[in-house]
Amino acid sequence: MNTKSATYEEIYEGAMILPGINPWDPPNYVNxxxxxxxxxxxxxxxxxxxxxxxPTVTIxxxxxxxxxxxxxxxxxxxxxxxxxxxKPYLDRLNEEIxxxxxxxxxxxxxxxxxxxxxxxxxxxxxxxxxxRKYYQLRGYxxxxxxxxxIPDSFHPEEMPELHRPPEMCxxxxxxxxxxxxxxxxxxxxxxxTSMLPEAVDWFALEFDxxxxxxxxELNKKQEEIRKWLRQSDCCAFIANGAILPRKGNxxxxxxxxxxxxxxxxxxxxxxxxxxxxxxxxVTVITGGGYxxxxxxxxxxxxxxxxxxxxxxxxxxxxxxxxVKISAEDGRSVKNANLSPFIKWLPNGGDAxxxxxxxxxxxxxxxxxxxxxxxxxxxxxxxxxxxxxxxFMIRDDMMKELIKREPITPFTDRVRQLYGEAGISTxxxxxGSGEYLSVADTVIMMDEFYALNATEQAKEIYKNAKQTxxxxxxxxxxxxxxxxxxxxxFHVPSNQNxxxxxxxxxxxxxxxxxxxxxxYSGTERLEISDMGFIIIGDEKIDIRSLHNFxxxxxxxxxxxxxxxxxxxxKEAVSDMQKMIDDLYIEIExxxxxxxxxxxxxxxxxxxIPRKCELAAVINRMRQIDFTGHII
Length: 630
Known about the structure:
Layout lengths: L8 H5 L1 E4 L9 E4 L2 E4 L2 E6 L10 E7 L7 H4 L2 H22 L6 H4 L1 E3 L6 E2 L5 E6 L4 E7 L2 E6 L17 E11 L8 H21 L2 H23 L2 E6 L27 E4 L2 E7 L2 E6 L5 H10 L3 E2 L8 E3 L4 E3 L7 E4 L17 E3 L4 H14 L4 E5 L5 H4 L3 H6 L12 H8 L2 E5 L12 E6 L2 E4 L1 H12 L2 H10 L21 E6 L20 E4 L3 E4 L2 E4 L9 H17 L4 E2 L1 H15 L20 H9 L5 E6 L1
Parallel strand pairs: 15-22, 15-23, 18-21, 21-22
Antiparallel strand pairs: 1-2, 3-4, 4-5, 5-11, 6-11, 7-16, 8-11, 9-10, 12-14, 12-17, 13-14, 19-20, 23-24, 25-29, 25-30, 26-27, 27-28
Helix pairs in contact: 3-5, 3-6
């Protein structure tokens, strides 16, 4: 570090003067921002072009130092475990330098990503072969030691003792807020060259490879259950003993919570575990206020990802295509096929090519269902508290009063959705009995205890049918279904659930417009913690996308969207193919390849599901789609 400079440019340049192989060789001038502490590498990079005092440091530790075998580190759970076990070492460093009277910019601080209970691929820990240092210490006599430069023309057979092939390493990404420079950068140098390497040494020395293997085995068992679900007639599994309630707004399990226990009628055994299997079809979760019905649905939603030990939801496993669906007033809908839910539109509009800049609660929920179905969802999770009432139900009196109603309620389509498209639905319902007539299974929650109320619901429905006035109304509106409570006396025609849409890319860009035809020369990408992704001229509202698990996942979607926009060269593109191709690149290169320090966004990235990226694109207002019903 240059003590005459107020910046930290030197650590990024990594300028070195190294002697040659022989004492008489001229010195070599090298730029390399990777610094070495024995066999551990520390690569320093800019986090942002205007934020030089907060570098990103990637620590590369050879796997042999952690006693890892290839079968240990090929699994995502190994990366997740290393992240969680390395974090306490930085926490202790922060405690050592903490001064509550000073901000981090004056005091200095180490930053590492803090994950929730989910196990997902991230950019902050990954395994990769790392080129070894091309210089090493060598004595020339007189007790002196020099750094010796190994040139590009070096042949291993000439000096085999200097041969350093690439080595598999675990790479841990952190950030370091360097304190405001003092006269000699003493604290900054101590944080980077003394405190951090020492903490890494202790981490490697104390690393417990057996606990890592326990985490990997847990993840393997979770994957076995997922594989079983795909081949079975179930769409979700909740193990007995699972702790579903959370502690406040944290990801931690609530203390003194009632462990889950499956109703006897729904209990199954998978991989040696007993619990409640939720069969494909239509399942209603009901109960009084504060009974735990929404808590159960939230746990089922969380089950699309695997969880760590002691999360409480380790063995809550859900079809990983599941999507939470809600109403979303004001969203933009472009060329969506809403004909299954909208019979006609005013002024002769075409519901199979539905457009609006400000959707109502009912049309937005219909669009959310159709778009999710078109991107491969096989399970919908719906809570009546977050739904549009006129989309979910219409009782007999309202049907009697309103003769011309264009909206077909979800009660009339939920069974067709399963029978024709193979999409199951789990609903939380507490205020209407309409769904009791279309459910395959009814689970009633009572003070967080689950009871099977299917037979009781059948009896209630049977008694309702025996009342002439109610019976006639049921018979007029009941959809055809197999295995549910209603009779098969009305078979509606098949619905068109799918639409092959292609993205018109004219305004699919990260460059804001200066005028109608001219785009700015500077890209724009901002990720707001208020629930918006701002890119180009778009301000995308994602507050109703309930399946995001972290801000790092939202940040990743922002960068993925930007990458698609700058990569797209065709006037009309297949959105699904674009997304599929991007995920292939991520699999080959790692998620961090989409990151750019040009934008002042968070450094941490969690890989989202494809459907989350597609859902964000569907909410863009500037773009359009062309397509036809399949």
